Amino acid sequence: MTAKDDDPRKQRAARARKTVLKARREALLAEALRENLRRRKAQARARAQDKGDKGDKGGEGEL
Question: What contacts 60, CB < 8 A, 6 or more positions away?
Fold first, then answer.
């Protein structure tokens, strides 16, 4: 244990910093996962649209 570990205020501040960093990391991860899901859904929609367009429009797909 260092001298700063004995000070309750510094312990509380360190714990608060750790909590904030953890929350920020979790928020970034959640955002990345949402973005990834949105992109995958858009790709799946585009693939389904392309398959449908080829039959309906004789091969002309919208981009």
Answer: 53
Round to whole Å and give the CA distance between 59 and 53: 7
CA atoms of 21 and 14, how far apart (whole Å): 11
For the stretch 30-63, pLDDT in tens is: 999 999 999 999 999 999 988 887 655 555 555 5
Kindly state the DSSP code that residue 58 receives in the 8-state scheme. T
Q: How far is it, in rounded angstroms, from Cα 62 to Cα 52?
A: 11
Cα end-to-end span (Å), the chain: 62
Cβ–Cβ < 8 Å for 53, 61: yes
